[in-house]
């Protein structure tokens, strides 16, 4: 039995951390929260999943405060606006939920006429939306801390939101484990780690790796479309199968399967990005037009899992040098990078070229 070494500082965790978890639940359910900081308070509601009824209710809840839309700098630039940080857009008086979603997600949108201040808590609001795997675009109303109308909403501190990804690593714990025999008689043990963000990452221990020597490792971000269904839009499934075959040949190693679909934006938003790619964007541009960075993955959770498994020296199977930097920052010794070059096809050749040219992947082809 593998024991997790991550221990919560209190039976149910720190109060600020719990508040963020509850705020995430509210966002995922399509309800607003209030974000508090020394600079003020803001009621915020994700545009992703919003209905006309909830838009009307939010207007009434926040009255007489004026609502505005907050988008990231990358989405602002997609709208033809200059921005170096979150940008506020004036909310049209008769805006509908569908029109607002088009404003923050579609390719061809009329450039907004009026910009306003994004507000002091815009960065925290965007981070909360990303943590909830919603589009990082929100309706915001600056309110007073004691406003009666918003008194029933869940409240969360801006600082707690911004620190949550780092503190969530401490919540990692083994949730389940079992032997799972693979094809051709290969033995494997699946160990499921659960974290406070709501993801479940899996360590697949193949064969009998020797932890006293550098352990072959594939750090693989989940890709339902490629790994399970064999999508030809990416090379994820091909890399996973190649890594497994190589680890089998080496008599043991680990595949760390991280819950970071779509380079960290989630499956739903990845499919939205695919739709933008079908309209002419490349894989990086599509993420940016939805308001995301090109790659949101964080390898801190992966590093913690590796330490919990007792690994310290590893041979990493990857074409992405950023993974090496992410792991080395957590004290793991990387003795070798092992390329995982697969054959391109007609559907993913352009995707691979963008990964090479814009994301720095080391792809000879």
List the total number of helices: 14
Mean pLDDT: 91
CATH superfamily of the largest domain, please? DHBP synthase
Coarse shape: globular
Radius of gyration, Cα only, in angstroms?
22 Å
- CATH secondary-structure class of the largest domain: Alpha Beta
Helix content: 25-40%
Instruction: Kindly state the number of beta strands.
Output: 14
Biggest β-sheet: count, sense, barrel? 7 strands, mixed
Short description:
The chain is of the alpha/beta class and 365 residues long. Helices cover 36% and strands 22% of the residues.
Describe this structure as you would to a colleague.
It is built from 14 helices and 14 strands. The strands form 2 sheets. It has a 7-stranded mixed β-sheet. A 7-stranded mixed β-sheet has the order 8-9-10-12-11-13-14, sandwiched between helices. The chain is of the alpha/beta class.
Please supply descriptive tags for the structure shown above.
14 helices, 365 residues, 2 domains, single chain, seven-stranded mixed sheet, alpha/beta, Rossmann fold, DHBP synthase
Question: SSE layout and pairings?
Answer:
Elements: H1 15-28, E1 33-37, E2 40-46, H2 52-62, E3 67-71, H3 73-78, E4 87-90, H4 97-105, E5 115-116, H5 122-131, E6 138-143, E7 154-157, H6 158-168, E8 173-179, E9 188-194, E10 200-207, E11 215-221, H7 224-228, H8 236-249, E12 252-258, H9 261-264, H10 267-278, H11 283-289, H12 300-308, E13 313-317, H13 321-328, E14 333-338, H14 349-359
Parallel strand pairs: 1-7, 11-12, 11-13, 13-14
Antiparallel strand pairs: 1-2, 2-6, 3-4, 3-6, 4-5, 8-9, 9-10, 10-12
